[in-house]
Known about the structure:
It contains six helices and twelve strands. It is an alpha+beta fold. The protein has a single domain, classed as Acyl-CoA thioesterase, double hotdog domain (Porin, Beta Barrel), CATH 2.40.160.210. The chain has a twelve-stranded antiparallel β-sheet with strand order 1-2-4-5-6-3-9-12-11-10-8-7. A hairpin with a 2-residue loop joins strand 5 and strand 6. Helix 2 (36-48) runs antiparallel to helix 5. The longest helix is centred in the N-terminal third of the chain and has 13 residues, at 36-48.
Amino acid sequence: MSDPVEELIDALTPTFLEKNVYIGRTPLTSLERVFGGQVFAQAMRAAQNTVDKTRQVHSQHGYFIRPGDPKLPIIYEVNRVRDGRSFSTRSVNAKQEDKIIFSCLLSFQNPENGLNYQIKMPDCKQPEDCENDNERWEKISRIINPSDSEKSKFHRAKIRAIDMRSVNPVDVINPKPEIPEQLIWVKTSRQIIDKYNASLHQGILAFLSDFNIMATSLMPHGISILNKQLQPASLDHTIWFHDDFIVDDWLLYQLNCDRTGSSRGLTRGYFFERSGKLVASTIQEGLMRIRE
């Protein structure tokens, strides 16, 4: 049986094609579109290859322009915008069939000391006291459509590499309006051998930061992510890295929706280590159109 974590690492490691150009591929899936977190993370990993290893990503801002086709390779073209004394800037365009499907800007910095403040980590149950979300989704799949449960498992294959445990799971079968906040413990499903590869850990966290955001923005409306009238799509996504971390140990992902309107929802997230240290923040606006 294949190793899901190794498959994820391979997927998030674009292949060098020529100077400043890399190629990424999508693991086998039943999805009709490429998962946004995959493109976001592959673009980051491509840009990391063009920057001095002493500099780490501290922010990435991206726009999803067209849906990606999982059957086609994705070409990542990196533009070396600037290398300053402390910061480096890169832009990346992701293309399929010569059309841009995703575009982003990244900033890299040499680590340095300075003023330090952060918000407090929420008090909540520990991951050992929470149900595994992947197992919960398998139960839901069998309830909703027993004949398609295997297809659903294949559909969510990319999640096997990530262990997610919701503190208060959202009821996607019988949704009711509720406060749009989620607390989810996340980590890779096994330890990563390359423990001290900060660029890899950043790429994996960027990948999984796209999970559960849309579901959070739907919560105040009592609408499930499974609603067949829903047309969901990521519009833009940003991540900031504040400190070193390892993604094969538990991180608490706190998600809050600030605003919905004009068929869009704005949700922000924070990643905390168990010690309480805030290591990354993210924000995304997504399309949440309800079709007739």
